[in-house]
Amino acid sequence: MRFTDILTVARREVGVTFRGKRGVLLASILVGLAAVPSLIRLMGQHSANATQLQRAHVAALVKIYDRDIARVLVDCPPALVVVALATFFFQPFFVLLAGSDRVASEIDSGSIRYWTVRAPRPGIVLGKALGLWAVVALLTVAVQAAITVVAVVDQPHDWSWTLRWAGEIMIYSCATALVYASLCTFLGVLLARPRLVFVVGMAVVFVLRIARTALRDRQVDRIASILPGSLDQMFLTTGAGAKLAATAVVAGWSAVLLLAAAVVFQRRSV
Amino acid sequence: MSVAFMASGTDSTLAGVTKDADALAGARLVARGLSRRFGKRLAVSAVDLTLLPGRVVGLFGANGAGKSTLLALLAGHLQPSAGKVEWPGAPQGGLRGRLGMLPQGAPLPVDETPRRILMHLARLQLVAQPAAAVDDVLDAVGLKRVAETRLRNLSGGERKLIGIAQAFLGQPEVVLLDEPTSALDPWGRQRLRSLVRGRREAGAAIVIASHNLAEAEQLCDEAVVLEAGRVVSAGPLAALLGPPGEVRFELGQTGRLPLDAIKAALPGVRTAVDGEQRTLVLSAVEPAARIESVVQTTYRLLGEAGVDVRRVITGRTLEAALTAPASADGQHHDGATVERKAADPLEG
User: Fold this and answer.
1) Model pTM?
2) Do B100 and A117 lie within an 8 Å CB cutoff?
3) Long-range contacts of B268-275 (CB under 8 A, 24+ apart)
4) Smallest CA–CA separation between B271 and chain A, in Å?
5) What domains appear along chain B, each with residue ranges and CATH number?
6) Full DSSP string of B292-345
7) Does A5 touch chain B (CB under 8 A)?
8) Is A221 a residue whose pLDDT tops 80?
9) What digits encode the pLDDT tens for the residues A16-25?
10) B123:A110 CB<8 A
11) Mean pLDDT across A241-246
12) Which end of chain B is less enclosed by CB atoms within 10 A, N or C?
């Protein structure tokens, strides 16, 4: 396997997505989602109850995360808080939507055979995962950049503060996307049926969320923190230690899932 | 050196079989004891295969005989239940660019254009000059004019030709073609023939699994016949076809067939007529040199009886050879030996 195999496959994955109808559909969904925080921000700005909205905003953050993270996020431009929450919540589903048929449909239809006679299988599967990650990361960053522009225009005197937050959120989003892209690729290789990948993937994401909530309620934060569903919490926690731990979790889960995908793909019939 | 195939466990029973070490030394691909099971069904059973350079092997058999499974095993798409495939002379894991494959029923991505998908495959295959290689194969299949048209807008035959083009991309040493002629028009078949002959002359080993026996007859040097996953016959195609001891007259408007006169004029020759009296078959015409006089005599006698002859076919067709029933002693009626193997090589 050569690194160029991975890049060649990934480059095609990105190209195919943005050339086809799927790319247009995904971009449309994201633009739609991007409009939401902007609208909320505008509503808040022109509302007589701006103070009440601010309180509701803080209460929601406390409920979603905890008091410490809420305190951190209150410092973040509101439009970016909304986009960050939306990204962390919807990203796993978005990855499944974008990638559930990437490997699975090609194995299902037999098209993958055109690839496997030409390059080592691990290179193909890693390229597919990298391509999916690149697609999701590009679209996510594009939407976040658009909202950042809105936020900067909204509060031009705080532009450096807005950009710092935007940069952080983009990095966290891209990191969590890598884990879900790896999960989606692994399920694709394992199940080889696009719809099954989507359904099982959704189920896995829900189970991870439920597990995270249950473990947090039982104060078993250490175990909860190694689940992919807790990555946003770890990244948003202040301190280099938490961010380093989050990075380690991203690297660990991605490596395990991609290795498993490569091993399964190497052994399976296509 | 002309042998491309040998059946498992046999020393010399099959026509054209060899275990000559010199012959095997130049082999492009060697498969040993290849078997594949799907559940309880044994799709391919203990096949030994040696592909030599510059030879075209036809893989024949009824539906479900195991042709596509065997090709998939050779290409590494399927893991064998037993046995292995070796690539002599290739570095460990260095098969890139050595194999071209047209899988059956696997669609190319329809949102891509031929040029884009072929460029991608060429890059993946590490072809030295991908653009030139793509131009070459597009030219060879006559589809340069649609190189920038999405596959979804091409006809079934054109898509098939793109599939064939990718199999020959980068001039691989071994080319495996699964039903390459289906959906092809006569011009497409001609292009396929040209590609196959070109690669054969360049020293590639080519395997063609096909139900189009007339086409295969024109392309193949060797024939391998599979039955329920087992090789039942293998060797030079000429040996499978047997001596041209058969003449077939296809008849139009028939008067009364002068069978007695024909028998009297051609002693030793057997005659057979189909139920509708549309085909007259003369067999056991030996020696082969006698065929011309037999044809002339029969043609004259039929004409005198007012029987219209539409076509005369001399020699056996591949279809006739393959569909000939085997007798209980394992002999096809043309004398080609059929090997009867143990039922299941995976069961010890």
Assistant:
1) 0.80
2) yes
3) B269/B294
4) 49
5) 21-98+172-241 (3.40.50.300), 247-315 (3.30.70)
6) HHHHHHHHHHHHHTTPPEEEEEES--HHHHHHSPBPTTSBBTT--B-----S-G
7) yes
8) no
9) 888 877 677 7
10) no
11) 89
12) C
State the Cα–Cα distance between residues A127 and A133, nearest whole angstrom. 10
Per 3-state DSSP, chain A is made up of helix, strand and coil in percentages (nearest 5) of: 85, 0, 15
DSSP structural state of residue A50: H
Option in A4, A16, A110 nearest B103 (CB): A110
User: In residues, how long is chain A?
Assistant: 270
β-pairing, B56-60 vs B205-209, is parallel
CB contact under 8 A, A270 and B125: no
B292 touches chain A (CB under 8 A): no
Residue numbers of chain B with a pLDDT score lower than 50: 1-18, 326-343, 345, 348
Q: Is B87 helix (H, G, I), strand (E, B) or coil?
A: coil
C-alpha–C-alpha distance, residues B269 and B290, integer Å: 11
Query: How many domains in chain A?
Result: 1
Nearest to A119 among B96, B100, B105 (CB): B96
Domain that includes residue A124, residue range = 3-267
**Global ipTM:** 0.84
Lowest mean pLDDT among A179-188, A250-259, B136-145, B257-266: B257-266
Q: How many C-alpha atoms does B61 have within 13 Å on its Cβ side? A: 25
Q: What is the DSSP string of B202-268?
A: TT-EEEEE-S-HHHHHHH-SEEEEEETTEEEEEEEHHHHH--S--EEEEESS-----HHHHHHHSTT
Closest-CA distance of chain A to residue B97, Å: 6
CB contact under 8 A, B97 and A118: yes
pLDDT for the residue numbered B35: 96
Whole-angstrom distance, CA of residue A171 vs CA of residue B189: 55
Confidence of residue A1 (pLDDT cuts 50, 70, 90): confident
Q: With an 8 Å Cβ cutoff, is B166 touching chain A?
A: yes
Least confident of A40-54, A117-131, A153-167, A192-206: A40-54
Check B101 against A267: CB less than 8 A apart: no
Candidates B93, B111, B123; nearest CB to A19? B111
